[in-house]
Each structure stands twice: as structure tokens, then as C-alpha cells.
Design a protein that fits this description.
The protein is an alpha+beta fold. The protein is 40% helix and 26% strand.
């Protein structure tokens, strides 16, 4: 049996940081993510390859389960894969290749995309049919087990796809929209520390409650207006709101020189809007490019790791290549 599965990564279009303070945010599943291929074997060997981190290991099933020792060097991403394998029993061994076609640890939800794509492929191999709600729940449980805490945003985006509005009560609501969302993601390849950045914003809020409180209020208005702009297909407004959001993120101290450079380069070459995405302090920017995306991509990619993407409406999916 041979199965291929794909799960999308995500970007935060609006509302990072303010969402921690109960303001709305908008997240978009992107058509870049994690591709998994699993092929059953005639023996009991389980071979795992993760080319992006040069990981390649073989172990043997015992009583249909895999008992494993976690690799300390590449711990982060392989942990998720082993935890998924641990969910199921297998009659035979298999080869599993996890091809991460996005940046790791850059705020794009790579661990969720790995977990969700592996659950999809390996559940089918184990002969178990899971619906999307079950996949999302199991993926979230694994993220919580490994990370200690996890918002449901990344695993939901990887599972269901689409564009999601996270409201003031932290409920996830799908946005109905009918437009293309051509995006460029550029990575400065410096990692921001999400926990420290969230804490630094909290401290600013304590020090300047009225000023920072009103910045959060402005971010709330931006996200609300952006929801409407997406629903009505107003691309001009989406770009302008992204630029406003970027200025406010700068004001609360999560922007950096490198992020600014990428933001302004993309605008210089024609992006309608651009901003950092995720926690900031490094990581990625997104540029909204309904026009001239190739031209903007060519310029950004000369200096920074860059890819083009669009929204992924479908979420996790799999194809059985051989029965
Ligand atoms: C990180 O990707 C987004 C933050 O808003 C933190 C969070 O929502 O957990 C900075």
C-alpha cells in the first residue's frame, strides 16, 4: 500500500499579539505545507526520513507497535512523527517520508502540518478512517503533549484549511470569501522567541495600559474590517489594513530591522500590503501581491528565503496511490 498526504501550513494575516489579549485575528491556511508518503513493507521495519533536517532512522515493530527512543538532536520535529505513529497499530512495517516544504520554526505552523499529515496518512495505513474533527483533536493533543500548551489555531488550519476568524471569545469561524489571496512569504532566518515576545508585549501593556490598550483596540478594528474586506473581495482595503497592522506591531516592539527591510522591499516592488506574521522578533513577513507577484518575488528572493503561495481551501487530504 502506498499513500500520499498533504497538510497546509498557515500564516496569520491579522491580529497576532492582540489575539493573546482577547482581540480577533485572521489566519489563512496556505498551499505550502508538509507532504507525506508512506509505503508498506513486507517486514516489520519502520523507516523514517525527514530530508529537511537530514533525519533517517529505521526501527522495528514489536507487537504491532513502535517503541522508540527520541532523537535529541532533531527532537523537535521528529517527536511529533513518533507520537503520531504511537497512536496506531500496524500489521507490517513501512517507509515514511515527511517532506517539509516550508520553513521550520518560523511561525508557519510546521509542527501542526507534520502532525496532521502524518495522522492522515498513517491512520489510512492502519485501516482506520478518521474524520477531520478527530484528526484536529488528536493533532492538538499531540501538540499539547510535546509543547505543554498549544492554541488550536495551527492544528485547525492544517486540518480544515481556509481562512478563519478567531473572535473575541477565541471561537474559530470560517470566513466565506471568493477571491484569490496571492501571498509571498519571506523568511529572515532569525528565530523569534514567541514566549518572550508575548511577555514583552504584556509588560508594555502593564506599563502603558491606556496606550497599549488602545493599540489593541485599533488592531481589533483592523481585524474586523479585514473580515469584511475579505468577504466583499476588497483587495485595496486588505493591503491598507495589513500596512496599518504592521505599524501597530512595530509600536509594541515586535518588529525588527530585517522584518522591516522585507516589508519595505515588498512594498517598493509593488505589494499591496505587507507585514510581519506570527510573533515577530524574526521569522517571516507576508506580502499581499494581487499584481506583479513574480516581479516582487524575484526581488525578495535575491536577498531572503522566499516562496509564493495562496490560500488552501481544502485542508488535509490524502490519495491512495497503490492498494
Ligand atoms: C504567534 O504565532 C502568534 C501570537 O499571537 C501568539 C499566540 O497567539 O499564541 C504572537
Amino acid at each position: 500500500m502506498k499513500i500520499k498526504a498533504f497538510a497546509p501550513g498557515k500564516v496569520i494575516l491579522f491580529g497576532e499579539h492582540s489575539v493573546v489579549h482577547k482581540k480577533p485575528a485572521i489566519a489563512v491556511a496556505i498551499n505550502r505545507g508538509v507532504e507525506v508518503e508512506v509505503t508498506s513493507r513486507d517486514d516489520d521495519i519502520v523507516r523514517i526520513d525527514v530530508p529537511l533536517v537530514n533525519y533517517s532512522e529505521s526501527s522495528e515493530l514489536t507487537d504491532k507497535k513502535l517503541f522508540f527512543e527520541l532523537d535529541s538532536q532533531n527532537k523537535m520535529i521528529t517527536d511529533y512523527i513518533y507520537e503520531v505513529i504511537n497512536l496506531f497499530e500496524f500489521d507490517n512495517g513501512f517507509n515514511l517520508t515527511v517532506d517539509i516544504k516550508m520553513y521550520l520554526g518560523a511561525g508557519l505552523g510546521s509542527s501542526a502540518a507534520v502532525t496532521v499529515s502524518c495522522i492522515k496518512a498513517l491512520s489510512l495505513l492502519a485501516g482506520i478512517k478518521l474524520n477531520k474533527d478527530q484528526i484536529a483533536r488528536q493533532a492538538r493533543d499531540i501538540e499539547i503533549k510535546i509543547q505543554g500548551a498549544a492554541s488550536p489555531i495551527d492544528t485547525s488550519m492544517s486540518t480544515y484549511g481556509g481562512i478563519i476568524y478567531i473572535d473575541e471569545k477565541s471561537q474559530l469561524n470560517r470566513i466565506d470569501f471568493d477571491m484569490d489571496l496571492p501571498l509571498i512569504v519571506s523568511n529572515c532566518e532569525i528565530s523569534g522567541n514567541t514566549g518572550k515576545l508575548v511577555e514583552s508585549v504584556r509588560q508594555k501593556y502593564v506599563k502603558y495600559p491606556e496606550i497599549v490598550g488602545n493599540i489593541f483596540n485599533a488592531m481589533q478594528l483592523i481585524a474586523r474590517n479585514a473580515k469584511e474586506a475579505l468577504e466583499t473581495g476588497n483587495s485595496e482595503l486588505i493591503g491598507e489594513l495589513m500596512n496599518l497592522n504592521q505599524g501597530l506591531l512595530d509600536s509594541i516592539g515586535v518588529n525588527t530591522v530585517e522584518l522591516s527591510d522585507m516589508v519595505y522591499l515588498s512594498r517598493k516592488y509593488g505589494a499591496k500590503g505587507s507585514k510581519l506574521t506570527g510573533s515577530g522578533g524574526g521569522g517571516c513577513i507576508i506580502a499581499y501581491c494581487p499584481e506583479n507577484i513574480d516581479y516582487i518575488y524575484d526581488h525578495l528572493s535575491q536577498k531572503y528565503a522566499t516562496f509564493k503561495c495562496e490560500q488552501s481551501d481544502e485542508g488535509v487530504n490524502a490519495t491512495i496511490i497503490e492498494k
